[in-house]
Amino acid sequence: MNKAEILVIGSGPAGLKASLSAAEQGAGVALLERDSFLGGQLVKQTHMFFGSKEQYASERGFKIAEKLNLEAEEHPNIKILKDATVLGYYEEGIVSLEVKGKFATIKPAAIIIATGAQENTLMFPNCDLPGIYGAGAVQTLMNVYGVLPGKRVAMVGAGNIGVIVSYQLLQAGVEVPVIIEAMPHIGAYHVHASKVRRMGVPIYTSHTVLSAHGSESLEKITMAEIDQDRNPVTGTEKDLEVDVLCIAVGLTPLTEILFQAGCKMAYIPELGGHVPLRSDNLETSVPNIFVAGDVGGIEEASAAMVEGSIAGLTAAFNLGYGKESYAGLLAAAKRELDHLRRGPVGEKIRIGLESLSSFVEVK
Amino acid sequence: MLSKTGVPTDDQIEAVKPSKERLAKGPVVIVECFQEIPCDPCYTACKQGGFLPFEDINDLPEMDFEKCNGCGVCIGACPGLAIFIVDETYSDDEALVIIPWEFVPVPEEGSTVKGLNREGEAVAEVKVKKVRSAGKNKNTNLITLIVPKEFAHEIRSIEV
User: Whole-prediction pTM value?
Assistant: First the structure.
């Protein structure tokens, strides 16, 4: 069995920052990534990030990944395991893994779970036709492998992901005839929406996809306006010829390991689903198991990075590390997180965290 | 309405426009940022003091147009690509508009392209005066367009 002080599961923005913060304090870190490269969703993000310079604002997501990956790879206290998938969590804190096709177990003193989220999908007639993708798949094809998903793509979802992926499709030379959004307003940052709008992409709010059509693969969709109760308005049906339908209708935290480890969970719609109860320092109800990033509630990558720092610092401190810089860094990270969340666009996350804190107090 | 269509209203556009007097003095920034989001690189990028300090990272940018020299550094720093420079003094009937551009092809200097409004509709033929990179590793280009003066506050994109 391998011994590791801190096991970090997932190398997205939260996991990378957690690893670096803990390692900087002197703790030994094993960073686990199921893919063959580090960075999680950051590697697909070709747009400049928001936030402030502490969260690399104005830099493109994949550039942030390059920077953090290099720091992690060069850090003497971080051991990186790629192609490594967690299989299960057992009593006494043993974690089993598949690493490059081989079985292994590890018993860490602390675990930081930064597994991120998975995409939500939509049900409608023929929703399983080839050509209907989640936005993550479209981004992976285009931005990781350089493969165009199709020629003419209808986007469902005008949140940040839907609008950003539409912009990336336009950059790749793909036609985007429409963005369809069920809500009566655009969920994305308005500057993102304006960016695709002035490239001629119309955004239809209060609309939905009724059905998909095609014999071998997607050829056409039927869309329609919906009323306040989300029922289609008769007479507004419209057919649109497209070879791809891209679905970007939100994310759900990837929490299986947390459930398995016995962490107390609560269903909080504003945070995207089941999330763990946790302290201000992101420790769950199971001592020395921490969370950071989307697994604890769907938010922006900038917040995930800051959460990673908080979890990494605290995990290291709890194990007896903690340099002189510890208290200052922790306070600064908490301040940054508060700043990111305190504006109007942070309202949903604030409401979610508020209802989460109304559940049983975690020490 | 911006939150329904992605197109800001005329009132919103008017509210962020520098005064007539300032516009008559030469190139100046126009920041089309209408939603409080946690973001401040425009302020940190500006070396002229054209952006007033943010008290909260969610604040909308507030401007001191007198200090802006129209350099355009903020255009490449804005993750929302919401910043433009307008120079109404270029000629009697033409103005310069600098837009951010992250597409291929990058237009050739001296070429004529279609000028698009905020809804993506072609409203006038415009000439590309200058193309420059927003900086190392930026992958954003700043395109200076010569536009008919009446479209200086309307053209915000191009079709190459």
Answer: 0.95
